[in-house]
Every structure is written in structure tokens, then in C-alpha cells.
Design brief:
The longest helix is centred in the first third of the chain and has 13 residues, at 2-14. The chain has helices at residues 2-14, 401-406; strands at 20-36, 49-64, 68-79, 96-107, 110-117, 139-147, 151-159, 193-204, 207-218, 228-241, 244-255, 262-263, 265-277, 280-289, 300-301, 331-341, 346-356, 371-385, 388-399, 417-426, 429-434. By secondary structure, the protein is mainly beta. The protein is globular and about 70 Å long.
């Protein structure tokens, strides 16, 4: 046995030790905002919010060849003026961990990522990074991956809990020394457990299709001790042919919602785009998220829930739908997007949305229509230098009477709501070394 193993030992000694690399990078992203009806429509007499929010991140990325990656991302999110000039005690929320994971191979083409990480799948529709938000979104999970030339398989598994000691005023205490029991209530992660399988197949170099199967385990031990599981199953397809690009996706939700009600919901989306010139393109799309009728007495929940998606990307930049408010009546969202390359470093994007409910809206005379409002979003992007870019945007939202009624707003709401913002994104690579 010793003689048989000897050649392997000699070969291992002759192989070079995997190269170590270390990269230190950072991000500083201040964003000025004039919120004159973003998130929630302002009523007559209410004043807009004017503020500068800021994200500061520092990232440590260590790699030992392809054998190990250790990634740590620390961040601070604050509003200018939140901290005094002489800050004895931190008033900004302090430094927190955005991502912290280790990635390593398990067997041949199978690798794993363990720890706090982003889950980004299929253009952020169901699982997204939420990068537009100063804090972003990350999950505490295990990620196992496998891929070959055409097919890739990704899976994610998570289990969350909050220790309950029965004494804390807020009923939650993260005591890691708890020897028994379990307790979970939303407040940290919004779900107790998560199981996801995602497969992507490259049909051709310009066409790809994905399949998603996800189970969301919802629980609130402050209310009851039941575990309500909701399944999301669907596909995502994108293709391109010369100047034409196109896509479609569909998802079905079944199981139970967070309140234990039967879930029967779906999402359908399609788009077609055309590159008219090297500098100008247009995309026409339609999103349909099923919903409930306002007078429904059904014991089934038909409202689709894009629970971890970057909804800011799809349903209007002013975040009136599926960010500040999730309409139980669902949403029909036809939109038109125009993109113009203004220079080698600049581009201009304009998007128009028409919002309509999927379910019926019944009530007072001014809300017998499914029309919810219209929105226009304008964004200019300019790359100043290698590590610095500038973005500025303006959005206008006109709410309908039906929308005001759904959100329980009185009819003195302004006819027009708008949002103006300007963001500077600085992403330098501070240090890189090989050893």
C-alpha cells in the first residue's frame, strides 16, 4: 500500500502551491433625494423630504487559488447630519456586515458558498440584490453550485431563528448560548427557512432558459406555532437575434401565505426590444401579477408575492408598488423603455408605465375603475472616470382615485407626485496583491 501511494505523494510535492491573491476595494455612494411623493403620495399641505443618504462599503476578498475564497463586506448606511460633528457615540447605525462568506470546492465541478450572501437570479425578478437601496439585501444561507458548458445548477438553503427567553420586553434575544428550543418572528430575515433550486440552460449562445423551484417557510411564533410554506415555480427565457431581443417568464405560487391562507397566484411577463441604431434602442414590455378582488370572500389568496425581488427595477422607480405597498389587487404593468447613448461615457433612459389592478376594485364612485396611475422615469448615467460614475433621475407619478382608496388616502392627495435624485458612485480598487 505504501509503495502504491508513493507516486501520488511525490506528484503532490512537485505541484506548486496555489497562488494567493488579496484584493481590497471600497464603495462610497452618496445620493441626494427630493422626495415629493416617492413611496407614498403626499397630500395637500404636506412638505417634501429633502435628504442625502450615503452608503460606505469596504470589501476584503482573499483567494487561495481555486481552493478557497473568503469574502467580507462591511458597510455603514446613514443620512447626512445624522451624526454630530463630535460623535462620542455612534448615531448612524454603526458598521454592519453586508456579506461574509467562504466559497470552496466540494467535488469536481461542485462548489459551495457558506455564510451571508446575496441571492441574485434571472435579472432580479424573484431574487435580487436590491442594490438601488443604500443597505442592499443579503441572506444567511448555504449555496451549492454545479455547472458545465451549457447547464448550471444552483441551490440555496437557509434556516433562521431568534432565541426567545420570555423576559425581554421585545420578546427577542439573540443569545447564542441557548441550550434548547427555538423561536422565530419576522424582524431579522422575513422567513424562517428557504429551499431553492435554480437551473439555467444555454440553448444557443444567444438564447437561454432558466427554471426556478423555491419553497419559503413562513412563521411567526408571536402569533402561533404554525409553519406556512409557499412554493414558487416558474421559468425565465431570454433570446437575441441580430438587433432584436425578446423574453418571457412565468411563475406560479401555491401552498400557504404568511397568514395560513391558501395561495393561488401567478406572474406573467414578456418583452421585446429592438436596437434601431448603435446609439438608440427601445423595449416594450408587459408584467401581470395576479391579485384579489376588493370584495372577494374567497379563502384563497390570489395576490402574487415577489418576496425577494428588486421590485424597484420593474414597477416604477418611485416605489409605489411592491416596495412601500404590495397591492392585494395585483398589478397589470405595460411599459415602454427608450435608451439613448449620448456619448462614449453617457446614456439617457426614459421609461413610461401604465398601472392597472389585476383584481376588481369596488367601492365609491371615484374608484370603480382598475386604473391605478401612470409614471414616467428619466435617468441619465455618465462615467466620469474608471472608478467614478454619476447618475441623476427624475420621476413623475399621477395616482388615480382607485389607488388613493386602496391606500386609504383622502382625496386631497396632490394630482402629481415627483422624485428627483442625483447619485455619485465611487468604487475604487484600493489594493491588490499576489503572494
Amino acid at each position: 500500500l505504501f509503495l502504491a501511494a508513493l507516486p501520488c505523494v511525490v506528484q503532490a510535492q512537485e505541484e506548486e502551491t496555489p497562488e494567493n491573491t488579496f484584493t481590497l476595494s471600497a464603495q462610497l455612494r452618496p445620493r441626494f433625494e427630493y422626495r415629493n411623493g416617492a413611496y407614498v403620495p403626499l397630500q395637500e399641505g404636506e412638505k417634501p423630504a429633502i435628504l442625502v443618504n450615503n452608503r460606505t462599503r469596504i470589501n476584503f476578498d482573499y483567494r487561495h487559488g481555486d481552493q478557497l475564497q473568503l469574502f467580507l463586506s462591511f458597510q455603514n448606511v446613514n443620512i447626512w447630519g445624522q451624526a454630530p460633528q463630535v460623535q462620542l457615540n455612534d448615531r448612524t447605525g454603526g458598521l454592519s456586515i453586508f456579506e461574509a462568506y467562504a466559497a470552496l470546492p466540494i467535488y469536481k465541478d461542485i462548489n459551495a458558498k457558506i455564510g451571508r450572501q446575496m441571492i441574485v437570479l434571472d435579472e432580479d425578478r424573484i431574487f435580487g440584490s436590491l442594490d438601488w437601496h443604500p443597505a442592499g439585501r443579503a441572506h444567511d444561507a448555504i449555496n451549492i453550485n454545479w455547472k458545465n458548458d451549457k447547464l448550471s445548477l444552483r441551490s440555496f438553503f437557509a434556516f433562521n431563528q431568534n432565541y426567545f427567553d420570555g423576559k425581554a420586553k421585545d420578546k427577542l434575544n439573540g443569545n447564542v448560548n441557548n441550550p434548547k428550543g427555538q423561536f422565530f418572528a419576522p424582524g431579522g430575515q422575513p422567513y424562517q427557512h428557504l429551499e431553492v433550486v435554480h437551473a439555467h440552460y444555454n440553448i444557443t449562445p444567444t438564447q437561454g432558459v432558466s427554471v426556478l423551484v423555491a419553497n419559503l417557510g413562513q412563521r411567526n411564533d408571536l402569533v402561533d406555532d404554525n409553519d406556512y410554506n409557499m412554493q414558487t415555480i416558474g421559468f425565465h427565457y431570454r433570446g437575441k437575434s441580430d438587433a432584436l431581443r425578446y423574453g418571457a417568464e412565468g411563475y406560479l405560487q401555491t401552498g400557504k401565505n404568511a397568514a395560513g391562507k391558501d395561495k393561488e397566484a401567478f406572474l406573467l411577463a414578456a418583452l421585446v426590444g429592438y436596437q434601431f441604431t448603435p446609439a438608440f434602442s427601445a423595449t416594450l414590455g408587459l408584467d401581470y401579477l395576479s391579485g384579489n378582488d376588493t370584495n372577494s370572500s374567497s379563502n384563497k389568496d390570489k395576490a402574487f408575492n415577489p418576496f425577494s425581488g428588486t421590485n424597484h427595477k420593474f414597477y416604477g422607480f418611485m416605489d409605489h408598488f411592491y416596495v412601500s405597498y404590495s397591492p392585494s389587487v395585483g398589478l397589470l404593468n405595460p411599459y415602454l423603455n427608450l435608451n439613448l447613448k449620448t456619448s462614449d461615457k453617457g446614456s439617457l433612459s426614459a421609461t413610461g408605465h401604465y398601472f392597472r389592478s389585476a383584481g376588481k376594485i369596488l367601492g365609491s364612485e371615484d374608484s370603480k375603475t382598475r386604473h391605478l396611475g401612470v409614471e414616467g422615469d428619466l435617468v441619465y448615467t455618465h462615467k466620469i472616470q474608471q472608478y467614478v460614475s454619476l447618475q441623476a433621475g427624475y420621476s413623475l407619478f399621477v395616482p388615480s382615485g382607485s389607488y388613493k382608496k386602496l391606500r386609504a388616502l383622502n382625496l386631497e392627495v396632490r394630482k402629481q407626485q415627483d422624485w428627483l435624485w442625483c447619485s455619485l458612485n465611487i468604487n475604487p480598487k484600493l489594493f491588490s496583491a499576489k503572494f
